């Protein structure tokens, strides 16, 4: 578990305020604080836990502010390590909460379902993916995924300027990790807050939910977003401030590495399908190379791996390299053969 670093002054009115994620191997989320003439604005809020809230309150005090002075919070995406404290922030201040409209829609849908309905949907997805019933039972008995506590009140579209007087902070829509993921470009400071879209060491998770049905191509969106961000004017002179790990430069090279990783993964999946024939999502995911052997992975990790595999299969479908067969109750994928198929 990485140690939570101290609050850091990054200069020019920008602060790094790490908020711990108790019990999670990520360790912490960087909440960034940008000071303006009418109060500070946060980028993300952190995990919903007493220790996390305490870190946020004390970190703001270290900078010279109270929670009640916070003008607003821009949320890079709806995941709980980024939005968990929005409820407490709203109770303790008049801060607005901004998020891309696509992730606001996801948040609304999640909050409209009770916990039991979400669990039933998850069980149906896993069975259609070919998960053994023991795995379904184990995952359903484990910790539940927490939706954001509240729905943000301020939609922030691609290119929109954040309400931060005296600064030029603009939204850069980067779908893939979530449908409405945002990076934030501080044009007057040469900074890019990359959220979970571009991390310096690990590749962000891109999954498809539901696992076997639904529309969309999240990995295709993600790769397009990687190329777009890597091609921003002056990309390699930007200082990138991610939500995890460490700040970095060389944005163009890093986005190219991430794209290459996923292209290699698509090729590995297609090779597996050509060798094994029709495969359920479980069979496809279990046959791939992971950091840890499939049999040694927790059920939750296998579920995440299956979701990532589903995203790669969907991209292969979109490219005409794989096709969906089987039945709605148990779909299977096959590699498409023909003159344009890879050897």
What key phrases describe this protein's structure?
18% strand; single chain; 343 residues; seven-stranded mixed sheet; Metallo-beta-lactamase, Chain A
- Multimerization status: single chain
What about the largest sheet? 7 strands, mixed
Strand numbers in spatial order across the main sheet: 1-2-3-4-5-6-7
Report the end-to-end length measured between terminal Cα atoms: 43 Å
Helix/strand-derived category reads alpha/beta
Q: Helicity, in percent?
A: 25-40%
Strand count: 13
Query: Can you identify the CATH class of the domain at 8-109 and 144-257?
Result: Alpha Beta
Residue-averaged pLDDT: 93
Domain Metallo-beta-lactamase: 28-244
Protein name: MBL fold metallo-hydrolase
Organism: Nocardiopsis changdeensis
InterPro entries: Metallo-B-lactamas, RibonucZ/Hydroxyglut_hydro, Sec-metab_biosynth-thioest
Provide the fold topology.
Elements: E1 8-11, E2 14-20, E3 28-34, E4 41-43, H1 50-63, E5 72-74, H2 80-83, H3 86-92, E6 96-99, H4 101-112, H5 115-129, H6 133-141, E7 154-155, E8 169-173, E9 182-186, E10 191-195, H7 218-230, E11 239-242, H8 251-276, H9 281-286, H10 299-318, E12 322-327, E13 330-335
Parallel strand pairs: 4-5, 5-6, 6-7, 10-11
Antiparallel strand pairs: 1-2, 2-3, 3-4, 8-9, 9-10, 12-13
Helix pairs in contact: 5-6, 7-8, 8-10
Describe the structure.
It comes from Nocardiopsis changdeensis. This is MBL fold metallo-hydrolase. Pfam families: Lactamase_B. The chain has 343 residues and is of the alpha/beta class. The protein has a domain of 216 residues: Ribonuclease Z/Hydroxyacylglutathione hydrolase-like (Metallo-beta-lactamase, Chain A), CATH 3.60.15.10. Helix content is 37%, strand content 18%. The protein is built from 10 helices and 13 strands. Strands 1-2-3-4-5-6-7 form a 7-stranded mixed sheet. The chain has a 4-stranded mixed sheet with strand order 8-9-10-11, with no helix packed on it. Helix 8 crosses helix 10. The longest helix is centred in the last third of the chain and has 26 residues. The chain is globular and about 60 Å long. The protein starts with 7 loop residues before the first strand and ends in an 8-residue tail after the last strand. The C terminus is likely disordered.
């Amino acid at each position: 578990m990485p140690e939570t670093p101290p609050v850091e002054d990054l200069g020019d009115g920008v602060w790094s305020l790490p908020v711990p994620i108790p019990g999670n191997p990520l360790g912490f989320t960087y909440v960034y604080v940008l000071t303006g003439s009418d109060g500070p604005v946060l980028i993300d809020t952190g995990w919903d836990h007493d220790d996390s809230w305490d870190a946020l309150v004390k970190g703001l005090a270290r900078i010279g502010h109270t929670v009640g002075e916070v003008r607003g919070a821009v949320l890079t995406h709806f995941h709980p390590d980024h939005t968990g404290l929005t409820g407490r922030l709203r109770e303790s201040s008049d801060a607005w909460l901004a998020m891309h409209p696509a992730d606001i829609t996801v948040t609304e849908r999640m909050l409209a379902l009770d916990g039991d309905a979400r669990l039933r949907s998850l069980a149906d997805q896993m069975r259609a993916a070919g998960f053994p019933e023991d795995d379904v039972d184990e995952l359903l008995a484990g910790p539940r995924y927490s939706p954001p506590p509240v729905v943000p009140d301020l939609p922030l579209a691609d290119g929109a300027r954040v309400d931060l007087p005296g600064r030029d902070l603009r939204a850069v829509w980067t779908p893939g990790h979530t449908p409405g993921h945002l990076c934030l470009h501080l044009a007057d400071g040469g900074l890019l807050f990359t959220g979970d879209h571009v991390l310096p060491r690990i590749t962000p998770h891109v999954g498809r939910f539901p696992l076997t049905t639904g529309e969309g191509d999240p990995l295709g969106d993600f790769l397009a977003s990687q190329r777009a961000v890597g091609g921003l004017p002056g990309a390699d002179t930007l200082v990138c401030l991610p939500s995890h790990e460490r700040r970095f430069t060389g944005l163009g090279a890093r986005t190219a590495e991430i794209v290459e990783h996923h292209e290699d993964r698509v090729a590995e999946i297609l090779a597996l399908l050509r060798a094994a024939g029709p495969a359920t999502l479980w069979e496809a995911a279990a046959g791939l190379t992971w950091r840890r052997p499939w049999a040694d992975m927790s059920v939750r990790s296998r579920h995440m791996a299956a979701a990532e595999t589903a995203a790669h299969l969907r991209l292969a479908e979109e490219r005409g390299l794989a096709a969906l067969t089987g039945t709605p109750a148990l779909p299977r994928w096959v590699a498409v053969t023909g003159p344009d198929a890879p050897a």
